[in-house]
Design a protein that fits this description.
This protein is of the alpha/beta class and 634 residues long. It contains nine helices and 53 strands. β43 (331-332) and β44 (335-336) form a beta hairpin.
Length: 634
């Protein structure tokens, strides 16, 4: 790499000006004056330089900003500061801002007791800071590392500033320890960047950093927030076994070649909002929350998640994406991922797929109890695999007017919960409180009617999801969605005509929309009992009518003509409820259920009762059979 052109402005400190030329370089050398002299350390007379170096002691503070260092000159300076007991250089405050290092910069095992300033320094050769200890702030803002930058095992007790630093060669921070904030915002890593087993006790800031080569954070530990917003990973991004105690923010980051991301554990939120994955990728994340709002997947992706609350709202899926609840601990090359940081329950909860093209989405073994579906496209093509959990209806008995009701158990959508809670005027639930099983769940916009879905919208969601289950040959799974669709249509006063709503009310009351066999059988039993009682009271005659033959015999003999007549059946005056009459009424009723005529003599009223029962009771039996079939058909 060519040496950068020096800035045209003069530095703010008194500088050496060696080699200044009015035409080509009016400023000359920018090295700061050695105390008591008018030249920098590089251009000081040999005797004066020897005198200055001889006067240094371990732990002394030095200021050589802008000074051009050869490898030999730097080594002489560090030898003068070497502590004889440790054999390592020991510096107080060290000012190397804007300095130029033409050879190897060997600061390995150096101890910086004060602040270390390498702001905008130019290191043309290898930079060796392995094992160095920075007790104060380490400032490498805008520094340029043309060769390998080795910070393996370095200890940064104060803030470490590498903002806008440029690493043209490999950058090694393996097992480095950052006790305070570590800022790499806007840094450029042209080759491999290795932070394996590094420990970040403070905030780790990589906002806007560019990783052109492989970025390795294998086993790194982030005790506070980790900021990777707008970072660009052109090569592979390896976070195998990384541990995030706080939030891991990758908002707007670009992963252009990552094939495997994770497994990692995060005690807070993994924020991948607006991030871009350009190639087929597998993500393995164990976290309390994962945000993929407006995340863009340019190719196929498999997202394996553990114990997280996941938001996929408005994600862009250009190819199939599968979100799976991973059943066991993630494994790395050295063991399993430690999940002691996680506080959430052992299930994956998807909270939103709003605005997503669900035709490319597969959800496996996920909890959709609080998932928002409104605004999603092609919900009828959504694939729900494995064990999918949806919100149940409230449990127990509830007062409604002067009566008590109990909601039948079924799987429901969060949107229905939100609408019913808003319609019932339920008070809001405190943030973070678990849902109460005896109440409908409040929505995120409980007090805003304009943002609460209405029954017409929820019915459309149920209809599309029902089709998705039916296309998957899961008729029992589709039954609850059909029930929910009919429920919303029954309550919809704007999109459903009044006559249709009345029919739905009757359909619901008689058989639960053809899905509640117990309700239909209950009505059938009531209808049969009513029929029996009516027949015993009004329908069965006192006795079977007898036939009478009447005729006239001609006086001279000959053919006799008889007229055969039958008496009209008459109701008994007493003893209507006897065992014999019950048996006859039961026979008539059972024949009516299977749409058969009993052949029993009935009064005129009994005939109409039988006709009515032969229409109503077979219909109720058919509804019960339909409900049973809907629950067991595959």
């Amino acid at each position: 790499m060519s040496t950068p052109t020096p800035p045209s402005a003069a530095p703010p400190w008194p500088h050496c000006a060696h080699g200044a030329d009015p035409v080509t370089d009016p400023i000359g050398c920018r090295g700061i004056h050695v105390p008591g002299h008018t030249a920098c350390l590089a251009h000081l007379a040999d005797t004066d330089r020897d005198t200055y170096l001889a006067g240094l002691a371990p732990g002394a503070s030095i200021d050589h900003r802008g000074t051009p260092f050869t490898e030999d000159l730097l080594n002489r300076l560090l030898r003068a500061l070497t502590d004889p007991t440790t054999g390592a250089p020991r510096l107080g405050a060290a000012g190397f801002g804007g300095a130029q290092f033409s050879g190897t910069a060997g600061f390995g095992r150096a101890q910086f007791s004060g602040d270390a300033w390498f702001t905008e320094a130019q290191l043309s050769g290898a930079a060796e800071f392995g094992g160095a200890q920075f007790s104060g702030a380490a400032r490498f803002r805008g520094a340029q590392f043309s060769g390998t930058a080795g910070f393996d095992g370095a200890q940064f007790s104060g803030a470490a500033w590498f903002t806008r630093a440029q690493f043209s060669g490999a950058a090694w921070f393996t097992e480095a320890q950052f006790s305070s904030a570590a800022e790499f915002g806007g840094a450029q890593f042209s080759s491999a960047a290795r932070f394996s087993e590094a420990q970040f006790s403070g905030t780790a800031g990589f906002d806007g950093a560019q990783f052109s080569g492989t970025a390795r954070f294998r086993g790194a530990q982030f005790s506070s927030a980790a900021e990777f917003g707008e970072a660009q990973f052109s090569g592979d991004a390896r976070f195998h076994g990384a541990q995030f105690s706080g939030d891991a923010r990758f908002r707007g980051a670009q992963f252009l070649a990552a094939a495997w991301w994770g497994p990692l554990a995060c005690g807070g939120r993994v924020d991948l909002s607006s991030a871009v994955f350009g190639t087929p990728v597998t993500l393995e994340i164990a976290a309390d929350a994962v945000s993929c709002v407006r995340t863009r997947f340019e190719s196929t992706a498999t997202v394996r998640v553990r114990r997280a609350e996941m938001d996929l709202g408005y994600a862009v899926l250009a190819a199939p994406v599968a979100v799976t609840a991973h059943p066991t601990l993630f494994t790395t090359g050295t063991g399993t991922v430690d999940e002691r940081l996680l506080a959430g329950p052992d299930r994956v909860r998807v909270t939103s797929i709003q605005g997503v093209d669900a035709a490319h989405l597969v959800l496996t073994d996920t909890d959709l109890s609080d998932c928002l579906f409104s605004g999603a496209f092609h919900l009828d093509q959504l694939r729900l695999e494995g064990r999918t959990t949806l919100a149940p209806t409230p449990t127990g008995w509830h007062r409604k007017g002067i009566s008590s009701i109990r909601w039948t158990r079924r799987r429901t959508l969060a949107e229905e919960h939100h609408w019913r809670a808003h319609s019932a005027g339920q008070p809001p639930v405190p943030a973070g409180a678990p849902p109460e099983p005896r109440r409908w769940r409040n929505g995120p916009h409980h007090h805003d009617p304009a943002r609460t879905p209405d029954p017409d919208d929820v019915a459309a969601l149920y209809r599309q999801l029902r089709k998705a289950f039916e296309d998957g040959k899961n008729e029992p799974g589709a039954a609850d969605f059909y029930y929910g669709e009919c429920e919303m249509r029954r309550h919809d006063r704007t999109g459903t005509p009044k006559t249709e709503r009345r029919l739905l009310w009757a359909y619901w009351a008689l058989s639960g929309y053809g899905l509640r066999a117990s309700r239909a059988l209950g009505w059938l039993a009531a209808a049969m009992l009513t029929t029996i009682l009516l027949l015993m009271t009004f329908g069965l005659p006192a006795s079977s009518p007898k036939q009478e033959a009447t005729g006239t015999v001609p006086a001279g003999g000959g053919k006799v003509t008889f007229t055969i007549d039958k008496q009209d059946p008459k109701n008994p005056v007493k003893d209507r409820f006897t065992t014999k009459r019950f048996d006859k009424a039961l026979s008539v009723t059972l024949n009516s259920v299977v749409f058969r005529s009993s052949g029993q003599d009935l009064t005129t009223t009994g005939t109409y009762i039988e006709m009515t029962s032969r229409i109503l009771e077979p219909a109720l039996l058919a509804l019960a059979v339909l409900a049973i079939r809907g629950r067991i058909k595959r």
